[in-house]
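Appendix C: a fully annotated inverse folding record. The material below is reproduced so that readers can follow the format used throughout the book. The structure is listed first as tokens, followed by the designed sequence.
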């Protein structure tokens, strides 16, 4: 009986033991980091893939994957997988979006959102540069940062991460407004419509999945409804925001500061020339991190171990006699 051949592009450098279930049942080839050209060149050799979100498995890649039966990703987001094409080609997938017992332990993304929030509201980039120049004390009275206590935090999306950020806001003695399409049956949560949240929040944090109905949810019109000087945080997906409108608002002060871990088209190899990166090079009211909000040791290791084990089980159940 032949064994499945498995391509691993997921970064397992810190946890090679996570791949042991796959090595027991198949031939494992680890290729990290891997670029799109390499993926296109080798994908036809593999029966299964374990991948991060660094490469899009779109129609161009999948059309070459003649042997591919299943893709596993140790993530909750799956917009790097073209599920329509996968379904048409009979390719299964594994993710961790509904593995609630597992992901409830993963706090990294919520913590990163709070890091960006604090860095923005306390003007960390500007004051870091001032400290390196030998400055001491506040720059001037007008530019003093605000404290969080007593301010209003707007959380858009009250899933796992939104709930965590809500709790952080409450711990900092903020008023917290929450918007979600579902009715929230929690007595300590103030649920409001989106317009109310935007109009009353000093800080807005996004915790939504990217869908057709959420794409560019934060557009020019909705930015105009926000408080002047609002802080905007996005650790979800770049396409939730109209980035051109956000840059305009950062330039005018309608958005006082923004902290983002995700940008539009972040899989583009020329992402260093992205409009947000260009803006951040010359302005200190935009903080960008390179899609690392979820990348903490504990969550990365546990997610990879779980997905590898699940992938091994699926592959073992398949017929490899042909």
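Designed amino acids, in order:
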């Amino acid at each position: 009986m032949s064994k499945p051949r498995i391509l691993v592009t997921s970064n397992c450098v810190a946890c090679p033991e996570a791949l042991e279930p796959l090595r027991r049942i198949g031939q494992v080839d680890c290729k990290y980091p891997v670029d799109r050209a390499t993926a296109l060149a080798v994908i036809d050799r593999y029966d299964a893939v374990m991948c991060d979100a660094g490469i899009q498995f779109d129609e161009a890649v999948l059309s070459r994957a003649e042997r591919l039966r299943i893709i596993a990703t140790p993530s909750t987001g799956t917009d790097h997988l073209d599920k329509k094409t996968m379904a048409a080609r009979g390719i299964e997938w594994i993710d961790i979006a509904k593995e609630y017992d597992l992901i409830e332990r993963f706090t990294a993304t919520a913590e990163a959102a709070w890091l960006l929030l604090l860095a923005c509201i306390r003007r960390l980039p500007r004051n870091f540069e001032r400290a390196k120049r030998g400055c001491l004390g506040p720059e001037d009275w007008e530019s003093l940062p605000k404290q969080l206590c007593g301010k209003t935090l707007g959380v858009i999306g009250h899933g796992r991460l939104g709930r965590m950020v809500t709790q952080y806001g409450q711990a900092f003695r903020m008023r917290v407004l929450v918007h979600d399409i579902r009715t929230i049956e929690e007595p300590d949560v103030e649920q409001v419509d989106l317009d109310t949240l935007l109009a009353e929040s000093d800080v807005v944090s996004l915790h939504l999945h990217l869908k057709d109905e959420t794409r560019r949810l934060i557009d020019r019109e909705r930015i105009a409804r926000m408080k002047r000087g609002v802080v905007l945080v996005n650790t979800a997906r770049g396409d939730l925001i109209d980035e051109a409108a956000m840059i305009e608002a950062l330039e005018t002060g309608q958005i006082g500061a923004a902290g983002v871990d995700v940008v539009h088209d972040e899989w583009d190899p020329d992402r260093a020339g992205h409009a947000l990166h260009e803006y951040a090079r010359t302005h200190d009211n935009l903080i960008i991190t390179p899609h690392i909000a979820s990348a903490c040791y504990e969550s990365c290791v546990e997610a990879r171990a779980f997905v590898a084990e699940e992938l091994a089980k699926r592959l073992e159940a398949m017929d490899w006699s042909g």
